[in-house]
Amino acid sequence: MTRTILLVDDEEEIVELLRIFLEKENYAVREAGNGEEAWVLLQREHIDLALIDLMMPGMDGYQLISRIREKLRLPVIIVSAKTGDVDKVTGLGLGADDFIAKPFSPIEVVARIQAHLRRYYDLLGAQPVAEIKPARSICGSLQLDHESCMLYRENQSIVLGPLEYKLLNLFMNAPGRIYTKKQIYEAVWNEPYLEDSNTVMVQISRLRDKLEDDPKHPRYIRTIKGLGYKLVSQESGE
C-alpha cells in the first residue's frame, strides 16, 4: 500500500529536497505552502502522515497541528528551525509525535517517517486518517450537510450538484479567505490548472444562481477584483 505524505513548508527548496527522497522510497507526496492550504488538502485527500514547519504565513504550524488534533488521527512530525525548548514543548504538547531540527539529513527524515508509519499503522493497527467529520459545515445562515450534499440557507433547502457542493465546501472551510481561480480549479476539479478558462467562473455563476437572492449583486460569494473569490459571513460582513 502506497502511503501519502503531506509536506507543509513555505521553503520550496526544502519541500523539493524531501519530495525527491520520499518518492525514491515510493511514497506519494502532497505539498502545501501554509496551514490553510494544508487544511484544505487534509479535508479532501487521504493523508497518512504530515511533516509540518512551524513558522509559515497565515495559519502557522502550531495552529495547524491544533486543528489536526481536533479533527484527525494521523502521525505529525514537526520540522523547524525553531529549536528552543519552548518551541519543542509547545509543538509536542499540541499533539505532534516528533520534532526534527533544521538543517536536517533527508535520510534521517525518511527514516523517522518510516518508523512512525510502522508504529502507527502496522504495530498499533490504527486506521489511516480516521477523520471525525462534522455532519454539517456552518457559516452564518448557511449550513452545508455533508451526508446529503444539501445546502440549507435560513432553513430553506437547496439541492446542489457535485461540483457545486465541492465548490461551496471549499469556501466554507475558510470563510473570508480569498481563493484564486487556480486554487479553486485544482481543489474542486483535482486537476492541474493549465490555462485561464471560464470553467471556474461558470461554476461560480451556477452556484450563485442557487445561493443568492440576486446573483448579479451577490451577498455571499464575492468577486475580489484581480485576486479571486471569497465567501462572506453575513454576520461579520467580511
UniProtKB/TrEMBL annotation:
Going by the UniProt record, its keywords in alphabetical order are: DNA-binding, Phosphoprotein, Transcription, Transcription regulation, Two-component regulatory system
- Please list the residue ranges the record marks as binding DNA: 133-233
Q: Where is the OmpR/PhoB-type domain?
A: 133-233
Say yes or no: keyword Phosphoprotein present: yes
Pfam families assigned to the protein according to its UniProt record, in alphabetical order: Response_reg (PF00072), Trans_reg_C (PF00486)
Q: Which residues form the Response regulatory domain?
A: 4-117
Positions of modified residues (4-aspartylphosphate):
53
What name appears for this protein in its UniProt entry?
Answer: Response regulator transcription factor
High-level lineage:
Bacteria, Bacillati, Bacillota, Bacilli, Bacillales
